DNA sequence: AAGATGATGACTCCAATG
DNA sequence: CATTGGAGTCATCATCTT
């Protein structure tokens, strides 16, 4: 029944190694530590494929580092999701373009196609007049003055604080290396090996160079067993990748349409996600056979990480068969097989097993835990001394980056996010320490954390301060002082009517009976209701939500935006004061202003935060799928008399290296890359599709990483 | 067509309890 | 240490109404 500890830790460490190896395949990731379990040939192949191995002939800069799992899988399953409904998912949703079914087609896409969806806003001083409509107190003082179009600070912040160029790429690469060289380095080969290979073979034959590099890689690890087998696998998979874009296309489409024909059947829990995982695993370099066996054994609901675990474990157990003895493996397989019939993912047994695994681990293998209290590296009210953190070298900017998502994600999600984002420890913060509403979020960033300061004026800290008119009607038995998380839906009028009737029934008494109190308070907490009259509760108005989240009043109002859309956009947004506190350290680093790449911009929480901090926005490239949200931000941009340039793009998936390089060439690179990718597949409120990081929308996280890593690469290449 | 409404649990953490 | 119950969560869908 129990899996042996040996196999468990083996499997887990392999999974971790795999993920680390994946992460490593950017020019900023340090090499695997010598002590780490080696898994090189597989990793090389895996990552090479994920990197878009085959188009060696393509311009290096156009290469995406890591296609998200859904990129190909999404359109291969013609669900009902086209752009129209996709846009409704929320401010950070992103529809899948059928044209982007395959990486290859992506690469060959005319960059102008993306440009066509883009429009330029407000060049220079052509901004709209007055900011009278904007309603925060310090608006006037904060308006940026004396804007000088200096680009001197665009690449290197003046302070040496956290800036120590990313070692590997800048040390020997310099600017003299060819694009080919850079491409191989990006793939994860050491500069030494690449130099050696190119010297031996010359630049004319990339395929031969690749062969050599793979050979070196194998030779490097030859003292250990198993490598002979693996080298064979490498070859095979290189071949696979050669016809990867042509041969597979048809079959994938056929398969998916077949699936679709019985997808309505209730026995099939989630065929498309199964297929997705199959594709993802084959992308990772496993054979289709391995992948489908894993899915069959682990069940249709196993995560990709679990499936990878399984395959690794199976491979290792196969190889270690002679050593371990024959009775161990069947146990392992049996255990995994048990999960096949589970109706829901992350079953208890699995969770317990995982928990058990983690207990066996130590040191940095600990899973990420949420802090209690959730104050991150410090909040304004708290005067504890901040321990200076040490960032992994690969994480150090430029550029700075800042990533956000819900703190209460399913287990393992933050471990994955952290691993991809250069092993930076997430900072979990509840906005209730900044304002009158809770908002538990995780932030992964490489910003300095000393000398932060809060936005002024400080926002109201309690419900009564934020909504003074409610104080009069607030009963003593409602002890809330902070609101719960503001979400995308509000309580209905019918609900508040029911509550009113329940309360009126006990109007003569001094207090309603405990049962009624409990009912009312439960509903209040669930729907964030506030007291607006005798026995009268009401959901928050959109402008109250704006205020609580730190946006100017009427930020989301007007211009054809419906009330429902306002709630939705606001519910998906940053809490400005919280984010601004973290970003405040940029003010002295970039006195002349910053160039900003804002992914999943939504209604512009990042831009508003920086603006309120008094940090001039020089060049802002904002990517946002929802037209409604783009309109909101464009309107804000004009109303606040911005002096910089705003470039709006629609789809993060279409932002490739070419386009990025083109944008960066025009103003010298980004100082900050900020974004919170879609949370809807992670959020607890989602009963329907809480699929984790591999979910349809939430998997766009990998695009955040892809783009961030591209920018890092482009910037380290030097312009 | 857009808005309003109600129905739809699971997962995770944590404090209290035994 | 294991168990239990409470609390909270950037949501989605079908259906009805306006």
TrEMBL record:
Gene3D superfamilies: DNA Methylase, subunit A, domain 2, Vaccinia Virus protein VP39. InterPro entries: C5-Methyltransferase, C5_MeTfrase, SAM-dependent_MTases_sf, SAM_MeTfrase_DRM. Residues 61-108, 146-174, 239-270 are annotated as: Disordered. The keyword Nucleus applies. Residues 255-267 have a biased composition (Acidic residues). Residues 71-100, 148-174 have a biased composition (Low complexity). One of its GO terms (cellular component) is nucleus. Belongs to the class I-like SAM-binding methyltransferase superfamily. C5-methyltransferase family. It comes from Eucalyptus globulus (Tasmanian blue gum). Keywords: DNA-binding, Methyltransferase, Nucleus, Repeat, S-adenosyl-L-methionine, Transferase. It is found in: Nucleus. This is DNA (cytosine-5-)-methyltransferase.
């Amino acid at each position: 029944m129990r899996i042996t500890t040996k196999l468990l830790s083996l499997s887990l460490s392999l999974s971790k190694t795999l993920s680390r190896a994946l992460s490593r395949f950017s020019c900023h990731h340090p090499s695997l530590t010598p002590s780490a379990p080696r898994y090189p040939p597989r990793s090389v192949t895996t990552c090479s494929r994920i990197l878009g191995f085959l188009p060696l002939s393509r311009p290096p800069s156009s290469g995406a580092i890591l296609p998200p799992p859904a990129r190909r899988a999404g359109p291969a399953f013609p669900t009902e999701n086209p752009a129209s409904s996709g846009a409704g998912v929320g401010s950070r949703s992103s529809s899948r373009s059928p044209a982007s079914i395959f990486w290859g087609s992506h690469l060959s896409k005319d960059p102008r196609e993306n440009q066509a969806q883009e429009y330029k806003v407000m060049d220079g001083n052509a901004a709209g007049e007055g900011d009278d409509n904007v309603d925060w107190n310090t608006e006037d003082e904060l308006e940026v003055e004396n804007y000088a179009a200096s680009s001197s600070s665009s690449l290197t912040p003046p302070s040496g604080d956290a800036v120590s160029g990313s070692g590997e790429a800048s040390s020997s690469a310099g600017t003299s290396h060819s694009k080919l060289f850079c491409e191989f380095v990006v793939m994860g080969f050491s500069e030494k090996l690449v130099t050696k290979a190119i010297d031996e073979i010359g630049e004319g034959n990339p395929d031969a160079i690749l062969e050599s590099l793979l050979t070196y890689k194998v030779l490097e690890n030859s003292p250990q067993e198993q490598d002979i087998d693996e080298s064979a696998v490498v070859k095979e998979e290189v071949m696979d990748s050669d016809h990867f874009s042509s041969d597979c296309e048809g079959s994938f489409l056929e398969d998916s349409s077949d699936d679709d024909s019985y997808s309505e059947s209730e026995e099939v829990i989630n065929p498309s996600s199964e297929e997705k995982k199959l594709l993802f695993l084959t992308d990772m370099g496993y054979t289709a056979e391995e992948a489908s066996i894993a899915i069959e054994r682990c069940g249709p609901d196993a995560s990709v990480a679990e499936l990878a675990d399984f395959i690794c474990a199976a491979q290792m157990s196969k190889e270690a068969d002679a050593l371990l003895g024959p009775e161990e493996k069947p146990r392992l397989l049996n255990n995994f097989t048990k999960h096949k019939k589970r109706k829901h993912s992350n079953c208890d047994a699995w969770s317990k097993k995982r928990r058990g695994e983690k207990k066996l681990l130590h040191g940095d293998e600990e899973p990420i835990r949420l802090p209690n209290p959730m104050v991150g590296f410090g909040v304004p009210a708290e005067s504890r001394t901040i321990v200076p953190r040490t960032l992994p070298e690969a994480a150090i900017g430029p550029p700075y980056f800042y990533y956000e998502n819900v703190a209460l994600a399913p287990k393992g999600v933050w471990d994955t996010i952290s691993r991809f984002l250069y092993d930076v420890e997430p900072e979990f913060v509840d906005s209730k320490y900044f304002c009158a509403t809770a908002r538990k979020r995780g932030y992964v960033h490489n910003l300095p954390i000393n000398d932060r300061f809060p936005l002024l004026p400080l926002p109201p800290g309690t419900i009564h301060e934020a909504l003074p008119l409610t104080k009069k009607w607030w009963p003593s038995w409602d002890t809330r002082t902070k609101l719960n998380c503001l979400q995308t839906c509000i309580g209905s009028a019918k609900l508040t009517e029911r509550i009113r009737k329940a309360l009126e029934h006990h109007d003569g008494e001094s207090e309603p009976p405990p049962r009624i109190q409990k009912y009312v308070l439960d509903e209040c907490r669930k729907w964030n209701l506030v007291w607006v009259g005798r026995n009268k509760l009401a959901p928050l108005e959109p402008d109250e939500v704006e205020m609580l989240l730190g946006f100017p009043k009427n930020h989301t109002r007007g211009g054809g935006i419906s009330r429902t859309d306002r709630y939705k956009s606001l519910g998906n947004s940053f809490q400005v004061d919280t984010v601004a506190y973290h970003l405040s350290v940029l003010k002295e680093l970039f006195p002349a202003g910053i160039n900003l790449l804002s992914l999943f911009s939504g209604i512009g929480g990042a831009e508003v935060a920086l603006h309120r901090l008094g940090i001039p926005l020089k060049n802002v490239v904002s990517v946002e799928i929802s037209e409604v949200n783009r309109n909101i931000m464009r309107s804000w941009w004009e109303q606040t008399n911005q002096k910089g340039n705003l470039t709006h793009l629609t789809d993060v998936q279409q932002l490739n290296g070419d386009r990025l390089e083109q944008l960066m060439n025009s103003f010298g690179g980004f100082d900050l890359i900020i974004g919170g990718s879609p949370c809807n597949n992670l959020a607890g409120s989602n009963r329907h599709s809480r699929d984790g990081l591999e979910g349809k929308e939430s998997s766009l996280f990998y695009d955040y990483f892809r783009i961030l890593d591209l920018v890092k690469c482009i910037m380290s290449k030097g312009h």
